[in-house]
């Protein structure tokens, strides 16, 4: 097999170059647009597969380009990057199919798919960033690319949500800029290096390092929707369903969580972060977010809002796993990055199908929808049960490792937290399932009688991802499963 | 023992400052301009006392003469436009709220402080400090002219002078752009007596202007002063309606405006050969080239100043066209 | 006998001859204008090659040499400014071809070219000058041509704004001239080299103050910005782009250049300049938030951005100019390109929709998509989001300030960034809201060739950020600024 | 008491008077005049700087600069006055 040192760049370009083409295509060239979309997405999956094989063989990819004296634009493909990039590539392909179906007759498709591509390009860039500076570039690009998607409907409500989204994320980006600058000034490098780059600085200037930690985590916490920076996420759910799916599963919140991983593991280094005494507060904050998100989710009647609060809660599992500073918890955190993505995207696509096919947007309208859309609701059910943590589904695996990690780190409260959270998950998900399967549709309700008409492009994606949820959980120990790959990563980050 | 000239200087200085203050505070605009013209002439006199006859000539001819004419012409136009042409004293022609006394006082105090600072700075500066005089004295033999000011203007710092002519060109382009069409205001016409005077005076002025240009190489005078005096010819021609600008004459006028700049710049470029750089006139031809440039520049200055006085581009208007199209 | 000419003198003379030709032959003005721009760009490229090969180059005009004569000098920074002027000027000219194409604009078209080429002459002259009196004359060439361009449309609002601009411009020039007088009184010479190392006596401090205030007036530094918003907002779009993108930069460049030779006598004065910049950032931002018209908003954003450049100038480094000038220079280049793009885009939007009231941008089914996209791209650079050149400039500014421990100046920069997000997002909301229109809104409306120039500029503003390292090393050529030559 | 001292102070004073006028004047024409006064003040300063105790000849360079300044100022004045005239015409038309 030929060796391509530019492979990471090609992966980035598949979506980055697709964007201007998609922008320029006339609105009516729907077939060509779909062909480009799907072609590029499939190409990306193939390239990512190739890259991951190469990386597992120990090939090192490192592309650098000097932007300012000493300051490099740097792409690198390490196992952690592969984990995230694989998630985004696979889910992009699935979401693209879904979006094509969802927007079949909608307006502004050229714009939508252009920004959609840019959004994925930004996510890939975030995954491949070899230093915090490059990360910052793509992090801001992600903000800019998602804003037009959030306000895609162009209504007053969408614009209000967009404004809040923009204020939160750009302010977060600005703080990240401050943090990146601080890192650059303090350490003279912004490179991601397993074990961190700040060990020397910490010895000299503990307070500055602590401050830097707070600034960086705070900045990333905006996108990761950590309490108290989570407010934008439930509001941003006015976006079209595929956008919400992507935002919640791969792009925005995951970028934040992924950034927290990079910062804790490869900027500070887990030991340094512990020495600074910063991991315990972070774990506590994650714990608060997990409980808070779940409690707020219970009272939401709007399906997408309930799912959004659920995301607030679930994404913080990742932060929790990172902050526990135990290798086993780290495995759980990384696995959850994937598992949560699979589960949440399933649920948002299912929710989109309910809205499209039946006009059902509220939990109170869900009576009997299982009979009307069995496939969609089966997928939804699998994902919801996974979220609750039912074995052998994917969510169970993450929670299991997190709990073990808590024990390993002598943090018994984590067990209680996980149990409590699972209980809350059950409280807000089970009634939805109950309504869907065990209640009859209200006679004059909004649920349309007869078969709702949704195409295969809408029906198939959630089912596919639901199957993946099942597979990722059942075959967790198989080679190339997310879990196995995360063990590989953790060995690197903990320098074992 | 006081030098009597010092008393003269003091009195002149006082008069200049008083006239400056008076011209700004007098309410009638016509009086304002008249006071300004006297102020300008006295300033020119002061500059003669400071052994700067070239500057004095330029200030009298351009700074005071042409500027005064421009101001008077504008005042005439404004009074016509605001319908106060016939009134004896129009205090202001711009409809504005009166400035509160407090504002004026604050400004005065503020500017007073600045002026005080400048006075202190001036007193602290070395009197008759270092200057260019030794350098100029050394370089004069190579300049091709005998009069140092002309040497500076047209040789040592000829780049500045070229750009100064460009400023004049930019001004006339801008003025033609701004004002368009025919004015509704009747041109301020001169009485019969003055017309007769003008006919007699014109040839004399032309002679004086040409003389000023010619002596510029050796004695005070030169292109700018000469041009200004020749512009006076233009002003008189326009005022006596002996010449009325026609749309058909625009091409010639444009040519005349750019003549000085173009000739100056071309000469400056073309001398750059055989190891010489731009603006470096070969010594043998320096005087000829400088006179050529001066002559062209004088024509341009004269025509440009007259055009600035006339104001608008002479555009042929279709029937029923308003002048603001 | 062959004529030997230097690219430096050509950079000034070619636009001058072009202006003359365009004025004398009004019917061929556009053709002459384009030929001139191409030739001028060629001269600048030639000069850039010389500077790359030999470092800073000089030319003693008339062979006399400073201080008696006037020298021209080109180093990396000068050539960067010349290149900015050429590139932005060329693209704005292309846009002008379209926006002045109507029969009712024949007169504007006829005068646009000579005025613009005279303006180019003046600006190129400023960037090559090494003599403060010569700078005064050049600044006046710029001023008269710029006022002429401001009032090109002939509307009453434009004329009023142009008159205020004229007053401010003359006033600034006279303060500058008075400062030149004081320099002469003290030093007896006017070239830059003569200023170097002069002890700060009373006369020189007075000169510095007068010159700085004069230039601040010309470049519209808060609180001397009063003339700018109306002038830039009421001019026709290509003129606005030239005024906001290029003209204010000339005075800014002179500030930067002179500060090298006439260092501020006290740190406190530099802090004062920084404070004025901070005031501009805040006040300009607040006014942009309140502006009702798109072009006025863009003009107020210029006030804020100029302030940011002054913050960089004053406080982007511990050791004064030796560090901070680079941040200021990068921001000047970034703003020049992005603001020209933005004004052209705003003009296109106004042309297509028929008005530029921000509140009603979403009340029309007409969406000039490409112009709006261009506007957004330019905004990205002006806000300072990566990877634009504006981002690199802001990064340099904040890096320098942070390394020097000037945390409050970092704060000012961040506040300015947030304000710019806030005021630009008002515009985006107008672009992207659709529920106030009855008629169906189609995509890709109002695509026109006229969008090509602003789009190119906006893409440059974004893309040049990736080339910041070469740009930075270029502007350092032959330019000591405290660094060992 | 030498002429340069007397006229130097005169120049600064005239500049200051022009400054007050430029800031306070509301009448458009008067403001132009105030600016012209400022320029004369600056001219005084340069001419004074060039002056040498007779019989020494003065420095010709500042003289040349002042002449340049005078021409530049008349150009600027002409443009400002043209703007004023045009504006007044438009205002008068609007009022009618």
TrEMBL record, chain A:
The organism's place on the tree of life at top rank: Bacteria
Pfam families: Proton_antipo_M, Proton_antipo_N
An annotated GO cellular component: endomembrane system
Domain NADH:quinone oxidoreductase/Mrp antiporter transmembrane residues, every copy: 129-423
Topological type in the membrane: Multi-pass membrane protein
Subcellular location(s) per record: Endomembrane system; Membrane
Main location: membrane
Key words of the record: Membrane, Transmembrane, Transmembrane helix
Transmembrane portions of the chain: 6-26, 38-60, 80-100, 112-129, 135-152, 164-187, 207-229, 241-264, 276-295, 315-335, 372-393, 413-433, 454-476
Function: NDH-1 shuttles electrons from NADH, via FMN and iron-sulfur (Fe-S) centers, to quinones in the respiratory chain. The immediate electron acceptor for the enzyme in this species is believed to be ubiquinone. Couples the redox reaction to proton translocation (for every two electrons transferred, four hydrogen ions are translocated across the cytoplasmic membrane), and thus conserves the redox energy in a proton gradient.
Protein name listed in UniProt: Proton-conducting membrane transporter
Biological source species: Roseinatronobacter bogoriensis subsp. barguzinensis
Lineage: Bacteria, Pseudomonadati, Pseudomonadota, Alphaproteobacteria, Rhodobacterales
Automatic annotation (TrEMBL), chain B:
Keywords: Cell membrane, Membrane, Transmembrane, Transmembrane helix
Main localization of the protein described in the UniProt heading: membrane
Superkingdom per UniProt: Bacteria
Gene Ontology cellular component annotations, sorted alphabetically: plasma membrane
Pfam families: MbhD (PF13244), MnhB (PF04039)
Membrane topology summary: Multi-pass membrane protein
MrpA C-terminal/MbhD domain segment(s): 15-78
Transmembrane segment boundaries: 6-26, 33-50, 56-75, 96-125, 156-176, 197-217, 223-244, 256-277, 289-309
Compartments reported by the entry: Cell membrane
Domain spans labelled Na+/H+ antiporter MnhB subunit-related protein: 197-292
Family: Belongs to the CPA3 antiporters (TC 2.A.63) subunit B family.
Protein's recorded name: Sodium:proton antiporter
TrEMBL record, chain C:
Membrane topology reported for the UniProt record: Multi-pass membrane protein
GO MF terms held by the record: NADH dehydrogenase (ubiquinone) activity
One example of a Gene Ontology biological process annotation: ATP synthesis coupled electron transport
Subcellular location: Cell membrane; Membrane
Ranges for domain NADH:quinone oxidoreductase/Mrp antiporter transmembrane: 129-419
Record-annotated membrane-spanning stretches: 12-39, 51-70, 76-99, 111-129, 135-153, 165-185, 205-228, 268-289, 296-316, 328-349, 370-389, 409-432, 452-475
UniProt KW keywords: Cell membrane, Membrane, Transmembrane, Transmembrane helix
Chief site of localization: membrane
Family: Belongs to the CPA3 antiporters (TC 2.A.63) subunit D family.
Protein name: Oxidoreductase
Species for this entry: Roseinatronobacter bogoriensis subsp. barguzinensis
TrEMBL record, chain D:
Coiled-coil segments on the chain, per record: none
Annotated Gene3D superfamilies: 1.10.287.3510
GO cellular component: membrane
The entry's keywords: Membrane, Transmembrane, Transmembrane helix
Transmembrane segments: 6-25, 32-51, 63-84
Localisation: Membrane
Lineage: superkingdom: Bacteria
Protein name from the UniProt record: Na+/H+ antiporter subunit C
């Amino acid at each position: 097999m030929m060796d391509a040192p530019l492979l990471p760049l090609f992966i980035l370009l598949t979506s980055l170059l697709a964007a201007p083409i998609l922008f320029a295509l006339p609105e009516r060239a729907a077939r060509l647009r779909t062909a480009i979309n799907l072609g590029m997405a499939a190409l990306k999956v193939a390239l990512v597969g190739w890259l991951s094989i190469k990386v597992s063989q120990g090939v090192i990819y490192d592309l650098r380009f000097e932007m300012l004296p000493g300051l490099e634009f740097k792409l690198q493909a390490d196992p952690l990057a592969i984990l995230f990039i694989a998630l985004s590539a696979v889910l992009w392909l699935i979401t693209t199919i879904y979006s094509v179906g969802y927007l079949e007759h909608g307006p502004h498709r050229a714009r939508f798919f252009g920004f959609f591509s840019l959004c994925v390009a930004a996510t890939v860039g975030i995954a491949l960033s070899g230093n915090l500076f490059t990360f910052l570039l793509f992090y801001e690009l992600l903000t800019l690319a998602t804003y037009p998607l959030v306000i895609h409907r162009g209504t007053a409500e969408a614009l209000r949500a967009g404004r809040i989204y923009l204020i939160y994320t750009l302010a977060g980006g600005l703080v990240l800029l401050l943090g990146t600058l601080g890192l650059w000034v303090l350490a003279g490098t912004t490179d991601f290096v397993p074990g961190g780059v700040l060990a020397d600085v910490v010895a000299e200037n503990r307070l500055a390092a602590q401050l830097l930690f707070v600034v960086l985590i705070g900045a990333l916490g905006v996108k990761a929707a950590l309490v108290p920076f989570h407010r934008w996420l439930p509001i941003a759910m006015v976006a079209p369903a595929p956008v919400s799916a992507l935002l919640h599963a791969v792009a925005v919140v995951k970028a934040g969580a992924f950034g927290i991983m990079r910062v804790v593991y490869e900027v500070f280094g887990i030991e340094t972060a512990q020495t600074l005494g910063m991991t315990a507060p972070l774990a506590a904050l994650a714990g608060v977010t997990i409980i808070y998100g779940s409690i707020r989710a219970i009272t939401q009647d709007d399906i997408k809002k309930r799912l959004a609060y659920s995301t607030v809660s679930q994404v913080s599992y990742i932060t929790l796993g990172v902050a526990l500073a135990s290798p086993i918890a780290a495995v759980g955190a990384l696995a959850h990055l994937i598992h949560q993505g699979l589960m949440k995207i399933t649920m948002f696509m299912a929710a989109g199908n309910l809205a499209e096919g039946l006009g059902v947007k509220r939990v109170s309208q869900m009576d009997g929808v299982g009979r009307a859309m069995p496939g969609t609701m089966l997928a939804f059910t699998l994902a919801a049960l996974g979220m609750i943590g039912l074995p052998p589904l994917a969510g169970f695996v993450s929670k299991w490792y997190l709990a073990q990690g808590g024990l390993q780190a002598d943090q018994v409260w984590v067990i209680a937290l996980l149990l409590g959270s699972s209980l809350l998950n059950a409280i807000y998900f089970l009634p939805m399932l109950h309504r869907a399967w065990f209640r009859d549709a209200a006679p004059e309700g909004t649920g349309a009688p007869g078969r709702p008409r949704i195409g295969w492009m809408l029906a198939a994606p959630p089912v596919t991802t639901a199957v993946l949820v099942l597979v990722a959980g059942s075959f967790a120990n198989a080679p190339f499963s997310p879990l196995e790959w995360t063990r590989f990563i953790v060995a690197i980050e903990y320098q074992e | 023992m006081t030098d009597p000239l010092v008393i003269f200087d003091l009195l002149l200085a006082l008069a200049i400052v008083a006239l400056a203050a008076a011209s700004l505070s007098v309410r009638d605009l016509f009086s304002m301009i008249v006071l300004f013209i006297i102020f300008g002439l006295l300033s020119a006199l002061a500059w003669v006392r400071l052994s700067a006859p070239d500057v004095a000539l330029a200030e009298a001819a351009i700074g005071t003469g042409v500027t005064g004419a421009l101001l008077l012409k504008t005042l005439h136009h404004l009074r016509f436009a605001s319908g106060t042409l016939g009134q004896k004293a129009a205090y202001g022609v711009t409809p504005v709220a009166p400035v509160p006394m407090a504002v004026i006082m604050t400004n005065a105090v503020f500017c007073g402080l600045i002026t005080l600072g400048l006075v202190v700075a001036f007193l602290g500066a070395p009197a008759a400090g270092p200057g260019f005089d030794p350098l100029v004295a050394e370089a004069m033999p190579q300049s091709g002219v005998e009069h140092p000011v002309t040497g500076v203007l047209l040789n040592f710092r000829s780049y500045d002078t070229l750009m100064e002519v460009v400023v004049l060109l930019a001004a006339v382009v801008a003025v033609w752009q701004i004002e368009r069409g025919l004015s509704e205001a009747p041109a301020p016409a001169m009485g019969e007596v003055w017309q007769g005077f003008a006919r007699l005076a014109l040839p004399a002025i032309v002679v004086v202007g040409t003389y000023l240009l010619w002596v510029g190489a050796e004695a005070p005078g030169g292109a700018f002063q000469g041009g200004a005096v020749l512009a006076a010819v233009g002003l008189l021609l326009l005022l006596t309606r002996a010449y009325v600008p026609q749309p058909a004459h625009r091409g010639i006028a444009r040519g005349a405006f750019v003549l000085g700049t173009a000739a100056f710049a071309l000469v400056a470029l073309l001398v750059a050969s055989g190891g010489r750089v731009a603006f470096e006139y070969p010594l043998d031809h320096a005087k000829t080239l400088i006179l050529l440039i001066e002559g062209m520049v004088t024509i341009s200055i004269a025509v440009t100043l007259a055009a600035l006085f006339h104001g608008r581009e002479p555009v042929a208007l279709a029937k029923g066209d308003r002048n603001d199209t | 006998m062959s004529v030997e000419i230097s690219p430096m003198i050509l950079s000034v003379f070619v636009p001058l001859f072009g202006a003359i030709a365009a004025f004398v032959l009004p019917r061929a003005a556009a053709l002459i204008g384009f030929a001139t721009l191409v030739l001028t760009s060629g001269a600048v490229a030639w000069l850039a090659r010389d500077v790359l090969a030999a470092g800073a180059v000089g030319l003693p005009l008339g062979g006399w040499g400073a201080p008696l004569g006037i020298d021209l000098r080109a180093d990396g920074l000068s050539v960067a400014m010349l290149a900015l002027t050429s590139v932005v000027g060329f693209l704005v000219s292309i846009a002008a071809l379209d926006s002045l194409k109507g029969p009712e604009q024949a007169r504007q078209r006829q005068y646009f070219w000579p005025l613009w080429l005279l303006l180019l002459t003046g600006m190129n002259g400023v960037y090559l000058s090494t003599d403060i009196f010569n700078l005064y004359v050049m600044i006046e060439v710029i001023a008269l041509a710029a006022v002429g361009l401001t009032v090109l449309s002939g509307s009453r609002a434009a004329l009023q704004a142009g008159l205020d601009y004229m007053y401010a411009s003359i006033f600034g020039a006279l303060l500058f001239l008075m400062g030149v007088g004081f320099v002469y009184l003290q030093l007896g010479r006017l070239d830059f080299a003569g200023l170097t190392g002069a002890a700060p006596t009373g006369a020189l401090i007075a000169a510095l103050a007068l010159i700085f205030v004069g230039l601040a007036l010309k470049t519209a530094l808060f609180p001397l910005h009063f003339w700018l918003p109306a002038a830039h907002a009421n001019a026709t779009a290509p003129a606005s782009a030239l005024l906001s993108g290029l003209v204010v930069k000339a005075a800014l460049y002179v500030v930067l250049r002179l500060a090298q030779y006439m260092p501020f006598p006290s740190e406190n004065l530099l802090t004062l300049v920084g404070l004025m910049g901070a005031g501009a950032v805040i006040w300009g931002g607040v006014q942009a938030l309140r502006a009702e018209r798109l072009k006025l908003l863009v003009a107020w954003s210029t006030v804020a951005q100029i302030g940011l450049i002054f913050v960089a100038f004053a406080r982007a480094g511990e050791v004064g100019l030796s560090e901070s000038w680079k941040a200021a220079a990068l921001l000047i280049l970034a703003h020049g390109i992005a603001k020209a793009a933005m004004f052209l885009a705003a003009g296109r939007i106004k042309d297509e929709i028929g008005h530029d009231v921000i509140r009603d941008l979403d009340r029309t089914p007409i969406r000039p998509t490409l112009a709006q996209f261009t506007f957004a791209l330019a905004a990205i650079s002006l806000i300072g989001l990566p990877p634009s050149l504006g981002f690199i400039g802001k990064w340099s500014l904040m890096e320098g300030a942070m390394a020097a421990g000037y945390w409050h100046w970092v704060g000012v920069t961040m506040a300015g960034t947030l304000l710019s997000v806030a005021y630009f997002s008002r515009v985006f909301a107008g672009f992207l809201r659709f529920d106030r229109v009855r008629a169906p809104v189609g995509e890709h409306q109002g695509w026109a060739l006229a969008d090509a120039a602003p789009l190119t500029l906006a893409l440059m503003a974004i893309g040049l950020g990736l080339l910041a390292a070469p740009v930075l090393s270029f502007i350092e050529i032959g330019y000591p600024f405290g660094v060992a030559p | 008491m030498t002429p340069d001292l007397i006229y130097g102070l005169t120049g600064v004073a005239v500049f200051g008077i022009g400054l007050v006028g430029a800031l306070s004047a509301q009448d458009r024409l008067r403001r132009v005049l105030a600016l012209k006064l400022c320029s004369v003040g600056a001219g005084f300063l340069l001419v004074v700087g060039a002056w040498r105790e007779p019989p020494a000849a003065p420095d010709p360079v500042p003289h040349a600069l002042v002449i340049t300044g005078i021409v530049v100022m008349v150009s600027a004045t002409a443009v400002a006055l043209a703007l004023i005239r045009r504006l007044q015409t438009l205002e008068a038309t609007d009022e009618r």
